[in-house]
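Long-time lurker, first post. I've been practising inverse folding by hand and with some scripts of my own, and I keep getting stuck on stretches where the structure tokens seem ambiguous. Below is the full token string for one chain I'm working on. Before anyone asks, I'm not after the true native sequence, just a reasonable design that respects the backbone. If someone could post their per-position residues I'd love to compare against what I wrote down in my notebook.
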């Protein structure tokens, strides 16, 4: 199963998004509208993807991504390409049980007429021989970013989205993507649904894939609604405890988590023993740049619960709303921090 990443010790990656250049979209904001149009926009997106790739390479990131330069938002850009969803008909709904957002409406059966990201993935594949990771929204997070006026059942709609995601994932795999990641921040909120059908729909989305698969579960971008919510969670964040047992038994290969500066007790990692873990060692909710030693400390703590060959240093979440210099410096810290721990491991007996 494990392919290109097997020779790299502590392969680094980002959770997904990186800031966009200011000539492409308004900086430091989510859902930022494009500044270009038509052909120029397509060209601009690809140029931004190349810049983002170069920044990752400069920082020594091992598993690279498109930095989500070709999408406006990690959920809605995918949904925009589907039939059955009306973007003109908007409703304000409470998403992640946390904040109100104006979202599109499901008005009929949902389907995917053609691929959404495959051309972009092919373009990224042409630019590098490094392992590449591509992020898609997970079924539960998709239904939580919509108003459903057709299925009237979160579960039914999630199964439909899972089928669509599986079609897209198979084409991404064929385009040469090494790891397909599903973003499921909703897994940290709707615990009963996660256990009743959330993990099952996610497994439907990865059915038949031969490439590696990951699920990213986090406490969200560093926006105010999220930082306010975090203040209510107390001194120990045990949300992961709810989904981990089921995920441990699932076919998902990698679990991507928020760790650094979070109040997530590291020993919760015991619950996903045997899985590869993308450990968030960069906080995206602050402009303070981690030192390489901060990153190394988080990784050392994780190594108490995760075998060295299963530990993947990562960022806590997407960096889209950060400024570019801050994001760049944080990436550098991630690469340098992973290097410190790599050297320690190679000089110790932990790798035998
Ligand atoms: Zn995230």
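-- Answer (accepted) --
I ran through it position by position. Result:
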């Amino acid at each position: 199963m494990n392919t290109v990443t097997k020779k790299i010790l502590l392969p680094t990656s980002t959770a997904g998004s990186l800031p966009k250049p200011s000539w492409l979209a308004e900086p430091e904001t989510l859902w930022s509208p494009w500044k270009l149009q038509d052909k120029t926009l397509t060209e601009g997106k690809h140029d931004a993807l190349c810049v983002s790739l170069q920044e990752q390479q400069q920082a020594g990131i091992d598993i690279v991504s498109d930095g989500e330069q070709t999408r406006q938002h990690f959920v809605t850009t995918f949904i925009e390409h589907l039939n059955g969803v009306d973007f003109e008909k908007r409703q304000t709904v409470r998403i992640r049980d946390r904040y109100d957002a104006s979202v599109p409406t499901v008005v009929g059966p949902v389907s995917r007429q053609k691929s959404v990201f495959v051309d972009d993935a092919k373009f990224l594949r042409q630019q590098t021989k490094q392992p590449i990771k591509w992020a898609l929204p997970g079924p539960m997070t998709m239904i939580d970013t919509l108003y459903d006026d057709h299925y009237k059942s979160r579960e039914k709609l999630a199964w439909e989205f899972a089928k669509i995601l599986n079609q897209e994932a198979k084409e991404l795999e064929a385009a040469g993507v090494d790891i397909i990641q599903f973003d499921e921040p909703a897994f940290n909120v709707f615990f009963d649904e996660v256990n009743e059908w959330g993990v099952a729909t996610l497994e439907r989305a990865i059915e038949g894939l031969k490439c590696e698969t990951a699920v990213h579960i986090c406490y969200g971008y560093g926006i105010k609604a999220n930082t306010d919510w975090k203040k209510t969670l107390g001194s120990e964040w045990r949300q992961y405890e709810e989904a981990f047992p089921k995920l441990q038994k699932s076919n998902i290969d990698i679990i991507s988590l928020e760790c650094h500066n979070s109040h997530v007790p590291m020993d919760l990692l015991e619950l996903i023993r045997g899985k590869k873990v993308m450990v968030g060692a960069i906080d995206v909710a602050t402009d303070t740049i981690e030192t390489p030693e901060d990153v190394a400390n988080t990784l050392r703590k994780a190594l108490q619960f995760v075998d060295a060959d299963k530990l993947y240093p990562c960022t806590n979440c997407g960096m889209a709303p950060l400024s570019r210099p801050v994001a760049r410096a944080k990436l550098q810290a991630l690469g340098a921090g992973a290097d410190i721990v790599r050297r320690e491991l190679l000089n110790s007996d932990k790798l035998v």
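A couple of notes from the structure itself: Residues 9 and 208 are 27 Å apart (CA to CA). The chain has a mean pLDDT of 94. Happy to go over any region you disagree with.
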